[in-house]
Amino acid sequence: MTSKSPVRSCEDMDETALSYAEIKALCAGDPRIKEKMDLDVEVAKLKLMKADHDSKRYKLQDRLRKYFPENIKRGNEILAALQQDLETVRAHPLPEKGFVGIEIKGDFLTDRENAGAALLQACKDLFTDHTKEIGSYRGFPLHLEYDAINKKFELTLRGALSHRVEISTGVLGNLQRIENVLKGIPDRINATRLEIQNLENQVAAAKEEVAKPFPQEEALKVKSARLAQLDSELNIDTHHGGDREHSREENAFVAKRTPSPALSSSAASQQKKHKQEAR
Predict the structure, then answer these.
(1) Radius of gyration of the chain (CA)
(2) Rounded to an integer, what distance in angstroms lies between the CA atom of residue 109 and that of residue 115?
(3) What is the pLDDT of residues 176-185, one digit of tens each?
(4) Are residues 40 and 183 in contact, defined by beta-carbon separation less than 8 angstroms?
(5) What is the pTM of this model?
(6) Quick check: 192 and 82 in contact, CB under 8 A?
(7) E-assigned strands of the chain?
C-alpha cells in the first residue's frame, strides 16, 4: 500500500487460484502440481527479498552520490570557519583580572555594569525587526535583532560563522552569555570533527553494503527455472485439450454443411418430376 518493500510478509493460501490444467493434475494425482504451488510461494518470497535488497542498495547509492559528499563538505567548511573564529578569540585574550571591554554605539566600555546597561539600552532603541550593527566584542562585530514573532532580542557575533546569543533583562547576565558562546567554540570544533568522522565511517560501510550481491540469487535462479519448466509441462495438457475441442467444433461445422444421403435422393426426385411436367 505504501509502494515500499515490506519488512514482514504473510501467506494466505485461501487466495490460491488454480488453473484448469492444475485441477486436472490434482485429480490425476500429479505430484508436479504440489511442487509448482510450493515453488510459487518460494519464488515470490525470494523476489520480494531481492526487491528489498535492491531498494536498500539504491538508497545507499543515492546517499553515496549526494548526501554524504554534501554533508562532509559542509562539515569541513564549518570546521574551517570555527577554527578561524577560534583564532580571532585567541588574538583578543581575556585579561587575568577585570573586564576586557565592549564597544557599543561607538563607546568602548570597560565597566561591566555600564556595558550591560548600554546593551539593554541598545535593545530599547531598536524599534524594527531588522538587524543592526551596534558595536564589537573581542574582534567580533555585534549585530542586534528583534524577533517579533517570539518577542525577543538576539545578539549575533559575526565571524566566519554567526554565533547567536539571546538577550535577557539581566544587566550582567548578557555579558556572561556572550563570553560563554566564545568559550564553547573549541567544543564545537571537536563535535564537528566527530560528525565528519562518523559520516566517513558511514561512507565506508555503505560502500561495502552496495558491493554485496543478493545472497540468495542462485536459489532464485534455480527455483525460477524449475517453476518455468513446470508451467510449460502443465500447459501442454491445456494446449492438447484445446486442440481436441477445436477439432470437435470443426467436425460439427462440417457435418452441418454436408447434406445427408436421404436429403440428396429427395432433391433428385423432385428435379426429375419438374422435368417431366415441363415436357
Answers:
(1) 44
(2) 6
(3) 999 999 999 9
(4) no
(5) 0.66
(6) yes
(7) 102-104, 107-109, 132-137, 140-147, 152-158, 162-167
